[in-house]
């Protein structure tokens, strides 16, 4: 964490020196990095990279599926969940996903990833691009 603190403090100085204002950081769920970002850049927004999220989910849980077809169905349902545009659709897709995947997979998703849903699930990422600014 000290390496992150030193590095991000230096980055903060560069941003300040060059008048760079609003910050959005995309991370891969490195918890120490996420903590340090929130300390050094308390006004910034952090989001999780969906590519890294999927890479980790699939690497950890692919073996929980008996067949390639079952894994592909999970992949489709998981991606439909994270791109759900509304909370109501998210809830429906969550229920669908929960009914089709092994309990240990659902536990992993809810305790490791979905606790951060505001950082990568469309329905909970309340921001939009307006001209050259991101509004949260």
Write the layout of secondary structure elements.
Elements: H1 2-17, E1 24-27, H2 31-40, E2 45-48, H3 50-61, H4 68-82, H5 87-100, H6 103-113, E3 128-130, E4 133-135
Q: What's the tally of helices?
A: 6
Strand count, sense and barrel status of the largest sheet are:
2 strands, parallel
Q: Say how many strands there are.
A: 4
The SS-based structural class is mainly alpha
Proportion in helices: 55-70%
Strand content: 5-15%
The backbone outline, from C-alpha atoms, is: elongated
Order of helices and strands: HEHEHHHHEE
Radius of gyration: 17 Å
Low-confidence stretches: 129-136
Distance from N terminus to C terminus (CA atoms, Å) equals 28 Å
Looking across the biggest beta sheet, what order are the strands in?
1-2
Mean pLDDT: 91
Description:
By secondary structure, the protein is mainly alpha-helical. The protein is built from six helices and four strands; from the N terminus they run αβαβααααββ. The strands form two sheets. The protein has a two-stranded parallel sheet with strand order 1-2. Strands 3-4 form a two-stranded antiparallel ribbon. Helix 1 (2-17) packs parallel to helix 2 and helix 4 (68-82) packs antiparallel against helix 5 (87-100). It is elongated, with a radius of gyration of 17 Å.
